[in-house]
């Protein structure tokens, strides 16, 4: 591809990626829409550039990003006392994490590596190659599911990391790119959409977006610092049927109750 065509393609991709989610919602009037109520908030270390989040029993696992700062962390939950910590090599940019069968899986951004650890000791037990970037990861009990920043999700067999299938995610008739941190919740895939303040609920069979959760206003603007970044991080507390969310370098973890919103009125 020559330079001119590359620039044109890049410009088109930029336009697609920057389409506000609220505009694309108009193509799917039957979507479920939700607002939120904050039930509780607990402090978290503000330096955590959160990329992945998962609650397993009384442990909150956190994966953080940035070169030279990426970590794998385990906190007693909800006290947030640090139990375990592991620094990634400086050349790796940590991304999403998930815990399956006493193993932790941590993506890296551009290195094509998926790291595997023993969940108790944090000892690295394996390194797997992936053919794309790594963004967010979750599991459905038998398969790992990860995102690469596009509208595609990838399903892997954890026994040998073979690709089982890909899933194209769509909002109405349009592909939905920038899928980031993932969480499996009650038979659905929930995802952050990078650089938006919304979560989407995805049908794992056909990739259709079933619902949109509007989290605008969750972090008080007065609590934003120069290095405060975007909403990112979804954790489902199975024992208590509770949804927790946070962001990159946010001071709080938020426990939320969702509120159904009325469908928008059709244009006159």
Concise account of the structure shown:
With 268 residues, the protein is mostly beta strands.
Description:
It is a single chain. The protein is mainly beta and 268 residues long. It has helices spanning 3-17, 21-24, and strands at residues 32-43, 50-56, 59-64, 71-76, 81-87, 94-100, 103-108, 113-118, 124-129, 137-139, 144-147, 152-157, 162-168, 170-171, 174-175, 179-185, 188-193, 198-202, 209-214, 231-237, 242-247, 252-260. The strands form five sheets. Strands 16-17-18-19-1-22-21-20 form an eight-stranded mixed β-sheet, with no helix packed on it. A hairpin with a 4-residue loop joins strand 11 (144-147) and strand 12 (152-157).
Outline the fold blueprint.
Elements: H1 3-17, H2 21-24, E1 32-43, E2 50-56, E3 59-64, E4 71-76, E5 81-87, E6 94-100, E7 103-108, E8 113-118, E9 124-129, E10 137-139, E11 144-147, E12 152-157, E13 162-168, E14 170-171, E15 174-175, E16 179-185, E17 188-193, E18 198-202, E19 209-214, E20 231-237, E21 242-247, E22 252-260
Parallel strand pairs: 1-19
Antiparallel strand pairs: 1-22, 2-3, 3-4, 4-5, 6-7, 7-8, 8-9, 10-11, 11-12, 12-13, 14-15, 16-17, 17-18, 18-19, 20-21, 21-22
